UniProtKB/TrEMBL annotation:
Species annotation: Rhodocollybia butyracea
Keyword Ribosomal protein assigned: no
Similarity-based family: Belongs to the protein kinase superfamily. STE Ser/Thr protein kinase family. MAP kinase kinase kinase subfamily.
Protein name: Kinase-like domain-containing protein
MF-aspect GO terms: ATP binding; protein serine/threonine kinase activity
Gene3D superfamilies associated with the record: Transferase(Phosphotransferase) domain 1
Keywords: ATP-binding, Kinase, Nucleotide-binding, Serine/threonine-protein kinase, Transferase
């Protein structure tokens, strides 16, 4: 969130291989080698899509009209969360990058290959693949995930207390 607030864009850095997890479960983005700022230009004259197509927001396939932004980062983050939780690449059912590009440009989003998400978390992740002006900010995304997992941790703690004492720790 801090880096997005300073206009630093993570274009090309979001993928499972660039996220490290500490023993305490904190995630750290590891590869800043390709991080850019909003003010840097996005080269469209070479035709180079600069990044893995499986994580690229649809608007980036039109480099003449769009540049990497916090919104395109959110698209990539949604793909990365999908990859981390399921263990498979976005659009894993499609073998060719050209077919992935076509799929994305026709409005299709990554699918969840296995129900490893709660409906609430899946809904938050899917918001990352909305039209660019409707994607959540990193702050809103983090807030929604934190809210879900905090509630879940409280429910788990209450269940453990109930199993041990027969009394609920939740009000009501």
């Amino acid at each position: 969130a801090f880096l997005h607030s300073t206009n630093i864009i993570f274009f090309e850095t979001f993928s499972q291989s660039n996220i490290l997890v500490s023993e305490l479960g904190r995630c750290y983005l590891a590869d800043f080698g390709l991080t850019t700022t909003v003010l840097q230009s996005f080269s469209s004259s070479t035709g180079d899509s600069r990044g893995s197509t499986r994580w690229m927001a649809p608007e980036l396939f039109y480099p003449r009209y769009s540049k990497p932004s916090t919104s395109t980062d959110m698209y990539a983050l949604g793909c990365t969360i999908l990859e981390i939780i399921t263990g498979v690449l976005p659009f894993s059912e499609i073998s060719s990058d050209v077919a992935v590009i076509s799929h994305v440009m026709n409005g299709f989003h990554p699918s969840c290959p296995a129900r490893r998400f709660s409906d609430e978390v899946w809904g938050v992740v899917k918001e990352c693949w909305e039209d660019s002006d409707r994607r959540p900010s990193i702050q809103d995304f983090a807030y929604e995930l934190h809210k879900h997992y905090s509630r879940r941790a409280n429910e788990d703690a209450s269940s453990e207390t109930y199993l041990l004492t027969g009394k609920s720790t939740l009000p009501g």
